[in-house]
Amino acid sequence: MASNCRIFSINSTKLLLLQCFFTLLSTLLANNSHYTDQFVVRVEGGPKVAKELAEKHGFVYLGEIFDNYHHLRHHQVSKRSIEPSLRHHEALHSDKQVKWFSQQTLKKRSKRDLSYFYTDTVPYLNDPKWKDMWYLNRGNNLDMNVKPAWDMKVSGKGVVVTILDDGLEKDHPDIKENYDPKASYDVNNNDDDPQPRYDIINSNRHGTRCAGEVAAIANNSICAVGIAFHAGIGGVRMLDGDVTDAVEARSLSLNSQYIDIYSASWGPDDDGRTVDGPGELATEAFIHGIEKGRNGLGSIFVWASGNGGRNNDNCNCDGYTNSIWTLSISSATENGLVPWYSEACSSSLAATYSSGSGGEREIITSDLHHSCTTQHTGTSASAPLAAGICALALEANKQLTWRDMQHIVVRTARLANLQSSDWKTNGVGRHVSHSFGYGVMDAAAMVKLAKVWKTVPKQKVCTVYADIMDKIISPKTHIEVTLSVHCSKVKFLEHVQAQITLSSTRRGDIHIYLISPMGTKSTLLERRPLDTYRSGFVNWPFLTVHNWGESPDGEWKLEIHNEGRFFGRASLTNWTMILYGTSEDPQPLQKNKHRSLEYSIPTNFAYKNSTSNKTTSTFPTTVTETVLPSTEDIILLEENFNDSINYNISSSDYDNNSINYNSMFFPGMSQSDYKYSGVNSARKKESEFVDSFRNVSTSNSDMGMHPVSSVSWDKVFKNVEVIEANNSCTAISRCIFLWCLLLFSIWWMNTL
Ligand SMILES: [Ca+2]
Ligand SMILES: [Ca+2]
Ligand SMILES: [Ca+2]
Ligand SMILES: [Ca+2]
């Protein structure tokens, strides 16, 4: 290094030294822990024993985190210190009752909101802001289908959601009837009342805003409407004070037999240079939650994917969203764009609508001081919307496990108007993107599917270790390593983790891709220009959900790129694949159910198309609602329209039966359009058709539909065969009946 330095002129030497100094400083700062006055001890014998122990050593007892772990504070210990309090360490260490203890260090956790019209009147609810709640009521396949879910008589009744945040204004007139004290706690102040601390800049409004999105009361002439407006809503005040591992663990494990869904819109700094995740207690709390919460069905943790877009942050570097236990949610703007704050990563499962750029509308919800806001923003706003939608699904089926919920989200999320350059189809034909996961959440489809859902089989895990290596990745090059997997326990994948240890002179120069045996390429890490740390990654479990449903067997390929300059060396030392999933088909009966349900598609589609060619009415049209069997059937139609492409898996050719079906499904298309060679033109027509049907403007059409491979078409066709065999008679007669009814109505109208 010294000999290299001499080559430079004085100025560049100074510059280099300065650079060295800052790197050293930032490394030092990064590694420096700030000790707090909080301690956690593991003591057997319950809270009584722990309280006695606390008293003996002069601690204040704050509460039990979970089994045998207790949260303490010592008033004589400084609230902030670079040094641990050795005297108290000594005391706890020498006490035989104490099995384990830790002095809690400070964690940097930031809230995920941002510091920053026209109306489509829907005469539905009397809440003054309802008409402006575009993400719930604009129709045209451009909202989250919450209204049709409400029409199925679900509103979150009997479901309990808790917001882990900076408090909750529990006496807010649009919230108080749904406020649930049993789902609430103040971890910052150690009392039962999560009421926020008020200051002149309303810095603690975040939790109240998130709560209103979930459970603001409907039709009370006040402010807005929550998605699950009959759900119980609680607040945990935990961000307005020192955040430690213990504080997070207590919040995540609060009343886990009572609370169903925890919504969190915070995490490590989105500064584009942090790699941080849950500590040991918070990890334990997650495990406790998914294994024991909700009587063993598992707590549902909904998590905001992060707001670090402008800093080129990557949500896979955030251990909370990158965790398999959290249902990670990103955002889409009103126009279906990737928001400027959005972080793309392979661990996001789905998206909900939220704020965008100037001119695009934001989220409406309750606000501090009993008020109402139209300016809730960021992925902070997205996670509670997702939590509300999950509450609707949970009311429809209280037996859903934490994994069931993720399965249902994967199967029902829609492309809608979401535009991203990286939409792709995974190995089982599901569309997925790094910005939006599987697409925008669809409340009606989730409720529908939840009702017929059978609990997925037990989660199995295969862990496959690559040979210990020390593979150098020179600057401006990349390496490819492969790992051959044969996993007898897992045949249908859910989460896939690539646990990686690598060193690098500049962590932000590294980008990593994982290619599955079925050819699905996940971006595990993008470049992060602001991440100058030299610390690399130590056993970091990069998560991808893009392989959902694929088989794990075959060759996995890991591609690591190093964009470093000059001496920017990197080296891969360890790679382990952790493959989660099931040995049996997670939802075998579902396929049959959907086949029979799919039967309703041709009827409705044919009919709708015949009437909606000239009408500009929204979906579903009033005409349809009065003439066709029920709104419910139309919802089925849309839900299954996606499903038929998504997950009816088989290999097969097509026959005459399928032609009948397709000519009904996509009227005006001939058999030849569906030949292998004609797949592209078929796709085009399909998208044109869907556009005219859904009244989506043509400029969005190509983004609205996803390219469908010939394999996917096969899947549709096979399915059709089954349907036609069982139901063709009823299908045609129903269609003819409706046509006759329509013609008769027209004739009758004319005679008047
Ligand atoms: Ca309080
Ligand atoms: Ca209201
Ligand atoms: Ca982040
Ligand atoms: Ca997650």
UniProtKB/TrEMBL annotation:
<dbReference type="InterPro" id="IPR032815">
    <property type="entry name" value="S8_pro-domain"/>
</dbReference>
<feature type="domain" description="P/Homo B">
    <location>
        <begin position="455"/>
        <end position="585"/>
    </location>
</feature>
<protein>
    <recommendedName>
        <fullName>furin</fullName>
        <ecNumber>3.4.21.75</ecNumber>
    </recommendedName>
</protein>
<dbReference type="GO" id="GO:0001941">
    <property type="term" value="P:postsynaptic membrane organization"/>
</dbReference>
<feature type="signal peptide">
    <location>
        <begin position="1"/>
        <end position="30"/>
    </location>
</feature>
<dbReference type="Pfam" id="PF01483">
    <property type="entry name" value="P_proprotein"/>
</dbReference>
<dbReference type="GO" id="GO:0016486">
    <property type="term" value="P:peptide hormone processing"/>
</dbReference>
<keyword id="KW-0325">Glycoprotein</keyword>
<comment type="function">
    <text>Furin is likely to represent the ubiquitous endoprotease activity within constitutive secretory pathways and capable of cleavage at the RX(K/R)R consensus motif.</text>
</comment>
<keyword id="KW-0378">Hydrolase</keyword>
<dbReference type="InterPro" id="IPR036852">
    <property type="entry name" value="Peptidase_S8/S53_dom_sf"/>
</dbReference>
<keyword id="KW-0720">Serine protease</keyword>
<dbReference type="GO" id="GO:0000139">
    <property type="term" value="C:Golgi membrane"/>
</dbReference>
<dbReference type="GO" id="GO:0004252">
    <property type="term" value="F:serine-type endopeptidase activity"/>
</dbReference>
<dbReference type="InterPro" id="IPR000209">
    <property type="entry name" value="Peptidase_S8/S53_dom"/>
</dbReference>
<dbReference type="InterPro" id="IPR002884">
    <property type="entry name" value="P_dom"/>
</dbReference>
<dbReference type="InterPro" id="IPR008979">
    <property type="entry name" value="Galactose-bd-like_sf"/>
</dbReference>
<dbReference type="InterPro" id="IPR023828">
    <property type="entry name" value="Peptidase_S8_Ser-AS"/>
</dbReference>
<keyword id="KW-0732">Signal</keyword>
<keyword id="KW-1015">Disulfide bond</keyword>
<dbReference type="GO" id="GO:0097688">
    <property type="term" value="P:glutamate receptor clustering"/>
</dbReference>
<keyword id="KW-0645">Protease</keyword>
<dbReference type="GO" id="GO:0005802">
    <property type="term" value="C:trans-Golgi network"/>
</dbReference>
<keyword id="KW-0865">Zymogen</keyword>
<dbReference type="InterPro" id="IPR038466">
    <property type="entry name" value="S8_pro-domain_sf"/>
</dbReference>
<feature type="active site" description="Charge relay system">
    <location>
        <position position="165"/>
    </location>
</feature>
<keyword id="KW-0472">Membrane</keyword>
<keyword id="KW-0165">Cleavage on pair of basic residues</keyword>
<dbReference type="InterPro" id="IPR022398">
    <property type="entry name" value="Peptidase_S8_His-AS"/>
</dbReference>
<dbReference type="GO" id="GO:0008039">
    <property type="term" value="P:synaptic target recognition"/>
</dbReference>
<dbReference type="InterPro" id="IPR034182">
    <property type="entry name" value="Kexin/furin"/>
</dbReference>
<dbReference type="InterPro" id="IPR023827">
    <property type="entry name" value="Peptidase_S8_Asp-AS"/>
</dbReference>
<feature type="region of interest" description="Disordered">
    <location>
        <begin position="172"/>
        <end position="195"/>
    </location>
</feature>
<dbReference type="InterPro" id="IPR015500">
    <property type="entry name" value="Peptidase_S8_subtilisin-rel"/>
</dbReference>
<dbReference type="Pfam" id="PF16470">
    <property type="entry name" value="S8_pro-domain"/>
</dbReference>
<dbReference type="GO" id="GO:0097090">
    <property type="term" value="P:presynaptic membrane organization"/>
</dbReference>
<dbReference type="GO" id="GO:0005886">
    <property type="term" value="C:plasma membrane"/>
</dbReference>
<feature type="active site" description="Charge relay system">
    <location>
        <position position="380"/>
    </location>
</feature>
<dbReference type="Pfam" id="PF00082">
    <property type="entry name" value="Peptidase_S8"/>
</dbReference>
<feature type="active site" description="Charge relay system">
    <location>
        <position position="206"/>
    </location>
</feature>
<comment type="similarity">
    <text>Belongs to the peptidase S8 family. Furin subfamily.</text>
</comment>
